[in-house]
Amino acid sequence: MPPEEMPLTDAQIRQLQPKEKPYKTFDGGGLYIEVFPDGAKRWRYKYRIGGKEKRLALGVYPEVGLKDARKRHADARARLSEGA
Fold it and tell me: Does the reported pTM lie above 0.85?
C-alpha cells in the first residue's frame, strides 16, 4: 500500500500543520482530513455516484476524533450502499 494510503494515527493528525493552501491527508476508503490555512481540520468522505464525485462533511477535528470519524465514514458508506 502506498504511504499516502496508510491509515492515519491520532498523533499524525495532531502534527498536521497549516499550509498556504488547503490540503488533504487520506485515511483510506475515501475518508480524509482537510487542513485549511487557518489551522482548521475537517473530516470529509469522497465518493462517486453515477460517475460524479461527491464529498460529505463528517465533522471538525478535534471535536470529531479519528475513531468517531471512521465510524461516521462507515455509517455513510453503509447508507450509500443501501441507496439512501
Answer: yes
